[in-house]
Amino acid sequence: MVDIHQFSDSRVNRIPQLIIGFGGVLLLSVFGEWVVLGEMRLDWFRSTDLFGYIITTSPFVFGIIYGGYWLERSGLGPERYARIVKWLLGGLGVYLGINLFIILVFPAEIDLSFFFGWVRFAIAMGAAGGLLIGIIEARAIQRERAAERAIVHAEELEYRSDQLEFFNSILRHDVLNGMTVIRGHAELLVEDLDEDDHHQHAETILRWSDDVVDIVQRVRNVIQTLTRESEHQLTNVGLSAIITEEVARVQSAYPEVTFETDIHNEVHVKGDELLNEVIGNVLSNAAIHNDPDELCVTVTTEKDEERGTIRTRISDTGQGVPDDRKDAVFRRGETDRTSGGFGLFFVDAMVGAYGGEVWIEDNAPQGATFVIELPLRRPSKAAGSTSELVPSR
Predict the structure, then answer these.
(1) How far apart are CA 16 and CA 29, in angstroms?
(2) Are 139 and 84 in contact (CB under 8 A)?
């Protein structure tokens, strides 16, 4: 007996088409019977029971064809196809066997047309019934698995939410309160000290205190978004301006790196003020993970009008990311390609909150390309709008 699990992925994916083809063969068998036995005479239909068998068999044949068509578009995974086919073949075999047993045990004067019609009816009805049972079972299994995954996902989200809320309370009560004290003393020093080295040190403390407070507030915004403490309000933000701004900021931090951009002008997406951090974090990663002999980061945008999205591609010339790590780097705690800031875990979380996706591709001939896909938004009338491609160097 053929083990369907031994089929290659391409063959398994073709199972719905094979089911449709099987139904088509049953339909063609009627035409073949007319050609071979009826010698293509129209009166042959009236002189035999073929017409009756066509009427009784057709619903099951068309059910098989529709079942294959539906299966191809149902969203059921190919891993369910093998069991569905087993049900189809099982139903076919059992019902055909029962009918052949009846024909043999209770012999009667039947001609070939009657015999073929009976067999075709048994095959169609058995296969259609088995296919229906297989599809019902596959859908039930898929719903059960989806429910199990939803429960596990909900428990994981609850656990992460508790952790993030605890982290948020530490930031709010300990870090921010501490920075308020430090900033207050730094302000007093700036006011009391003359313009000397000590005064400059005090100004540095004050400036960095403001930066730390700003970062903490941004992190708290991320945490509130992830834990849904407050409703996350998304607005219409200018992606083009954000990319330009973040490229300039990161380039000032890494002057030895060349940044090449080729982006659309006046592109707007769904996001918030943290989109700057998302783009900036990925740009910083690209700047750090570069070939020392070719310090270059390339930034391009690509519209997908059909999906209503825009993809931002940020490429470096480093060693790249192995295939088995392309998903792992976005998990919490992974720091191999994280250069600080919010990390790739937060990049993934925020892009997801915007209704987008982020993934990693290989950059030819070497390096990695981070792809950020976000839903497009229509720009406001005040902002003006063009969709031309603006190269920049």
Answers:
(1) 20
(2) no
Gyration radius of the chain's alpha carbons: 33
- Residue 231 — very low, low, confident or very high, per pLDDT cuts 50/70/90? low
Contact 337, 289 (CB under 8 A): yes
| Residue 125 CB neighbour total at 10 angstroms | 22
CATH architecture label of 235-392: 2-Layer Sandwich (3.30)
262 has which bridge partners?
300, 391
Report how far residue 164's alpha carbon sits from residue 278's, in angstroms, rounded to the nearest whole number: 19
Angle at 138 between CA 133 and CA 144, to 5 degrees: 130
The residue among 137, 14, 125 whose CA lies nearest residue 62 is: 125
Confidence label for 26 from pLDDT (cuts 50, 70 and 90) = confident
CA distance 72 to 16: 5
Residue ranges of the domains in the chain? 4-152, 157-227, 235-392
Query: What's the gap between Cα 78 and its chain centre?
Result: 17
How far apart, in whole angstroms, are the C-alpha atoms of residue 372 and residue 195? 47
DSSP letter (8 states) at residue 326: T
CA distance 155 to 152: 5
Whether the ω angle into residue 78 lies within 30 degrees of 0, i.e. cis, is: no
List the end-to-end C-alpha distance of the chain, in Å, as a whole number: 64
Q: Can you tell me whether residue 15 is helix, strand or coil? A: helix
Cα within 13 Å of Cα(179), Cβ side: 18
* Tokens 């049972």 -> residue: 133
Q: What is the dihedral of CA 313, 326, 373, 76, to 10 degrees?
A: 140
Residue 87 has pLDDT above 90, yes or no: yes
Helix (H, G, I), strand (E, B) or coil at 266: coil
CA–CA distance, 56 with 63 (Å, rounded to integer) = 12
Contacts of 255 (CB under 8 A, 6+ apart): none
Q: Is the pTM of this model over 0.85?
A: no
360, 329 Cβ separation under 8 angstroms: yes
